[in-house]
């Protein structure tokens, strides 16, 4: 009885620890980093003076980085702002690649309705001399000035984009056109697009961001590994005890069965959590990878057709900007549920990106995949997402001949691009030869 009593209490403790590890995973895996004026960072004013403009700008003494400027005529796009240098040499900055959000404590006064926040990422891959002030990539977002009234604004790094003018002016390769945050050397706070002439003031008090030590997937895998290790340890101890006490064989076997059932249920739950998107319930990229591998194997063995439908919510950034991220999350979750309710059991939905979904249609050719996409397009356009209405664009491709999977994805992506370019809220199929 002593061994069994100790085991049951240990199992209860492990269950409680596992629940706590899942429930408080964010607090356990993340640490808040704070950057304040006076830390090992420097700030300097920036304006159109370097472009021949007449804007006056200065940093005032006092707590915080206090920038004051007067935007004047003299340059086609007059501006002013503050640059916080994490590395003046533009070589080694902050690694924010695993960071999802940053928070700025920022006071703003001025006639412009918007403010630009720019995170400059340095890399020799861009092909621009490191000595140039423009060598660092412009990851930027333009926010409404009203969002600064509370004195603090939280920014989702997934909403940042790369400035087109920078890509074009320096002939940066298209594959480098996605935002990067692995070497942020400068934070810039600048007047918005077409800022009116007049007086402006920016006071930056501090910057915060959360650093995640370990990915959620690895955390759950670690919990599962501990459970499996404990199961193996228990089995070993149990076998030794069975050699000593044959009389308890039936009771020990029942205990082993109960433990395996607990572990099996837990393992299934952790596997599901590792392959599904928590917000929408759709497959994540890991889950989609398994689905696509199976579908591709079916094609190679039995020539079963395979259709891909890329779905992109039109103007989703405007939904987040106008109604908040909670409303955007409701739209994402509602759209995923609407699609699942209106496709066949063999059709599998995954979340491909921020507002982009991938529908894998097994045993489905191009014509049938187009019909499915058109049905979903009409349903989405007519659906009420908690007081919001959105539309979506669709790119459709099908595997009807031997070609690599990346070419199939490229065809669907090109079709989606044409759907958006032709006005959005439409279904476009891949271009076929002839």
Task: Explain the overall architecture.
With 434 residues, this protein is α+β, with helices and mostly antiparallel strands. The chain has three domains: 2-29 and 223-274, no CATH class; 36-212, Jelly Rolls (Sandwich), CATH 2.60.120; 285-429, Alpha-Beta Plaits (2-Layer Sandwich), CATH 3.30.70. Helices cover 38% and strands 27% of the residues. The protein has helices at 2-23, 25-29, 164-169, 216-244, 249-275, 285-302, 316-323, 325-341, 366-381, 405-421, and strands at residues 30-35, 42-47, 56-60, 65-71, 80-85, 101-109, 114-121, 137-144, 152-156, 161-162, 184-191, 198-212, 306-313, 347-351, 356-362, 392-399, 427-429. The strands form three sheets. Strands 1, 3, 4, 6, 9 and 12 form a six-stranded antiparallel β-sheet that branches. A six-stranded antiparallel β-sheet has the order 2-5-11-7-8-10. A five-stranded mixed β-sheet has the order 14-15-13-16-17, sandwiched between helices. Helix 4 (216-244) packs antiparallel against helix 5 and helix 7 (316-323) crosses helix 8 (325-341). The longest helix has 29 residues, at 216-244. It is globular. Mean pLDDT is 84; it is low at 265-270.
Question: Which key features would you list for this structure?
Answer:
434 residues, alpha+beta, Jelly Rolls, 10 helices, globular, single chain, Alpha-Beta Plaits, 6-stranded antiparallel sheet
Brief summary:
The protein is α+β, with helices and mostly antiparallel strands.
By helix and strand content, what is the structural category? alpha+beta
Helix content: 25-40%
Please trace the helix and strand order, writing H or E for each element: HHEEEEEEEEEEHEEHHHEHHEEHEHE
If classified by CATH, what would the architecture of the largest domain be?
A: Sandwich
The total beta strand count reads 17
Biggest sheet descriptor: 6 strands, antiparallel
CATH class of the largest domain: Mainly Beta
Mean pLDDT: 84
């Amino acid at each position: 009885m002593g061994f069994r009593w100790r085991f049951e209490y240990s199992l209860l403790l492990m269950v409680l620890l596992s629940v706590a590890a899942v429930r408080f995973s964010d607090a356990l895996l993340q640490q808040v980093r704070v950057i304040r004026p006076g830390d090992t960072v420097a700030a300097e004013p920036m304006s159109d003076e370097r472009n021949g403009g007449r804007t006056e700008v200065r940093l005032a003494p006092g707590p915080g980085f206090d920038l004051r400027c007067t935007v004047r005529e003299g340059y086609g796009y007059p501006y002013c702002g503050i640059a916080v240098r994490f590395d003046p040499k533009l070589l080694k900055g902050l690694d924010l690649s695993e960071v999802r959000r940053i928070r700025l404590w920022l006071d703003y006064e001025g006639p412009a309705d918007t403010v630009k926040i720019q995170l400059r990422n340095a890399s020799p891959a861009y092909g621009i001399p490191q000595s140039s002030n423009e060598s660092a990539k412009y990851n930027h977002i333009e926010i409404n000035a009203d969002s600064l009234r509370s004195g603090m604004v939280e920014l989702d790094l997934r909403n940042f984009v790369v400035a087109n003018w920078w890509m074009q002016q320096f002939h940066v390769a298209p594959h480098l056109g996605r935002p990067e945050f692995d070497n942020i050397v400068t934070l810039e706070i600048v007047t918005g697009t077409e800022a009116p002439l007049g007086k402006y003031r920016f006071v930056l008090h501090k910057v915060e961001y959360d650093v995640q030590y370990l990915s959620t997937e690895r955390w759950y895998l670690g919990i599962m590994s501990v459970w499996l290790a404990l199961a193996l340890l228990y089995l070993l101890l149990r076998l030794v005890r069975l050699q000593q006490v044959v009389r308890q064989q039936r009771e020990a076997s029942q205990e082993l069965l109960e433990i395996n059932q607990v572990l099996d249920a837990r393992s299934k739950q952790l596997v599901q959590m590792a392959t599904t998107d928590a917000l929408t319930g759709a497959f994540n990229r890991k889950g989609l990878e398994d689905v696509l591998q199976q579908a591709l194997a079916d094609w190679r063995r039995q020539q079963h057709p395979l259709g891909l439908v890329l779905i992109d919510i039109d103007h989703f950034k405007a939904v987040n900007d106008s109604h908040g991220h909670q409303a955007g999350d409701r739209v994402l979750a509602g759209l995923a549920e609407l699609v699942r309710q209106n496709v066949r059991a063999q059709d599998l939905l995954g979340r491909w990106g921020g507002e982009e979904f991938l529908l894998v249609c097994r045993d489905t050719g191009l014509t049938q995949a187009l019909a499915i996409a058109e049905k979903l397009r009409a349903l989405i356009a007519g659906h009420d997402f908690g007081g919001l209405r959105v539309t979506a664009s669709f790119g459709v491709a099908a595997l009807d001949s031997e070609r690599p999977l990346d070419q199939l994805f490229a065809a669907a992506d090109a079709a989606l691009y044409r759907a958006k370019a032709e006005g959005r809220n439409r279904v476009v199929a891949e271009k076929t030869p002839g």
